[in-house]
Amino acid sequence: MSRLTSVRGSNNRGDKDRGSVEVNPWRVGVIFTVLVLVSAGFVWKLVDLQLSPDDDLLNNVGSYLREEKIDASRGNVVDRQGRLLAFSVPRPSIVGDPRGIAHSENPVDVDDIVAELATVLGTDPGVMATRLRSDKSFVYLERQVEPEVGEAVAALGLPGIWIMTEQYREHPNGSCSALSVVGRVDTEQVGISGLEKKYDEQLEGSPGRALRQTQLGGAVQIPDGYHVVEPHTPGEELRLSIDRNIQYEAEQLLARALRETEGTTAIAIVSNPRTGEIYAMASALRDEETGEVECSNANLGAVWTYEPGSTMKGITFAGVFDNGAWGVDEIVEVPATVYVARESDVESHAYHDYRLAHGTTVENLPSTILGHSSNTGTVLLAQELGADALQQTFENFGFGQLTGLAFPGESPGILDELDSHSLLLSNTAIGQSIAVTPLQLIQAYNTLANGGVSIAPKLVLDREPDGSAANPAHTETRVVSPQSAQTVMEMLRGVVSSGTGRRAALPGFLVAGKTGTAWQPCGDVSGYLCSEEDEEEERHYTASFVGIVENDRGPVLSAIVVIDDPQGENYTGGAVAAPVFAELAGYSVRQLHLAPFGEQTVAAQRIRSDPAVAPLALEPQESQESVQ
Q: For residue 301, what is the enclosing H or E element?
């Protein structure tokens, strides 16, 4: 070992010189430089790891923290009795880590992984292969699969493939049982239709936040590395006025009616005329290709419009009496034919009463005109009323505007200015040249049953999160006088007891209602599809019945049944829709425990179980009941 110091001087120079050394500046500089270079190397490596992490290193020994959202459980949708209509359950989703697969110590061919997955997943193998070859650390392969599918994928033990849990919306009764009313959510549990969309904020709740400590891509979670930062708040429950049993019965009756009549569309609404609560809102369709009947994806009762035909006559008569245009006891000279002039050089339009012989005239009271659904008698009374007053009547009853339900996608219908065309007043008075929704029409008849006071329809019994009413829009509104409403109700009872609506009778109860058989235009202009039979006349028919059921307490139930494009000779509202109304109303009063009339009433029978009277033979006067 070389010496770095030398001893100078002799012993006689004293002790202070014996241990002194001298430092070599050149050697100290070398050592310092080496230390600086080594430190700089360490610093550079640390910076490099932070800016350009080594995937293999991170996969093998590294971990990182990732903030994640904890999804809140979406609130249940239940019927008025608390029975489930929609609820969320955990479902496995199959995800992959393409980056982890590509940089694993033991590389696995993506095609081999896809081949294994294809044995249990429905996703296209080519799509899965593309996703697993991407430069991402997370991809979905198939979302919200059945639990047994998730178990099968887990059992494969494929590298870079794992299972994560997501919320999935269940509907216990499939595509029916008010699903068109409840609506749907997307894969992210966001409402996209129906009440799921309207009340999305109330149902979705508040998500939480969490830190998840994992290896790259999240394939392996570090034990005890999951730290909840903020818990989630589940969504609120939404309780509807719907009665699940009545809804189911309505759907079954509509499906049967379409099969028997070979119609294309059927709609039914059942409600409480006093509160506006809707017990059932059902719609069914016939598939154009297969001919099979199925529940509609859309809530047609609120979004579908049609020309209602003679069911509008009850509203026309309410306007006539409320405006003093004609007295209830005044005789009307009703001709078999009424001509309404059109523009010059065009033949006048003729309205017919097919009950009367050509060229004859009879004297009728307004009640008889409504009971037999006379077109000519109704047109004469509407002309006495005038376009302005009839227009105001229809607007007051809510036609041409949205109801207080404010259902997503709801249609306001079409109500033109009645003084804009010479025929429009007469056509609209008998339910033609006007488009309404079944919801608007049953609300109008509920107004008559309520003594002339309009109450908004209601589907939600809960309140909004801020405590406000769930249906805040419309308060009670006076539409016609109590006397006018009562007069029309008495006439509507006659429609069922001795007029065109006899098949809607319900033993043990009074029924006040109106039949309708309307022409619907078809072809490119109207948007309606024409059958081969329709093409010659460019129209088809829509049969309907709307009615109020009464017992000792007064009006306790209302319902409307609409059947579009029934085939065969029996296509009228009295022959097709009224019997369905009777069955549906009969089931509903039993389900709701509504008692029939007591001993002191004029009801012929007092029963609880019979749904309807036996169908009557079709009478000639009903065959053209509302057809112009």
A: helix 300-303
Q: How many CA atoms lie within 13 A of 269 on its CB side?
A: 32
Sign of CA dihedral 333, 337, 339, 340: positive
Q: Which of 279, 273, 285 is nearest to 247 (CA)?
A: 279
Let me know the angle formed at the C-alpha of 135 by 129 and 140, rounded to the nearest 5 degrees: 55
Helices marked H in 186-278:
194-198, 200-204, 244-261
The torsion region of residue 172 among left (phi > 0), alpha (psi -120 to 50) and beta comes to alpha
Confidence band of 214 (pLDDT split at 50, 70, 90)? low
Write out the H or E segment, with its range, that includes residue 349. strand 349-352
Cα 422 to Cα 345, 352, 583, distances in angstroms:
14, 17, 41
Q: Is the dihedral of CA 493, 497, 502, 508 positive or negative?
A: positive
Which sign does the torsion angle of CA 528, 533, 537, 539 carry? negative
Which of these, 617, 405, 594, 583, lies nearest to 504 by C-alpha position?
Answer: 583
Contact between 404 and 471 (Cβ < 8 Å): yes
Beta strands in 158-237 (DSSP E): 161-170, 208-214, 221-230
Read off the pLDDT of residues 260-299 as tens digits, 9 standing for 90 and up. Answer: 999 999 999 999 999 999 999 999 999 988 999 999 999 9
In this structure, the number of other CB atoms found within 10 A of the CB of residue 333 comes to 10
Residues in the chain, total: 628
Whether residue 574 contacts residue 501, with contact meaning beta carbons closer than 8 Å, is answered with yes
137's tokens: 């650390």
Q: How far is CA 586 from CA 562, 572, 582, 611, in A?
A: 17, 21, 6, 4
Single-letter residue type at 384: E
The CA distance from 470 to 239, in Å, is 10
Provide the mean pLDDT of the chain.
84
Q: Residue 325 contacts by C-beta under 8 Å, 6 or more apart in sequence?
A: 319, 381, 384, 385, 386, 389
Q: How many CB atoms lie within 10 A of CB 470?
A: 18
Q: Which helix (H) or strand (E) holds 519?
A: strand 510-521
If you ran DSSP here, which 8-state letter would residue 574 be given?
I
Pair of tokens at residue 293 = 């009947």
pTM of the full structure: 0.80
Main-chain dihedrals φ then ψ at residue 574, nearest 5 degrees: -65, -30
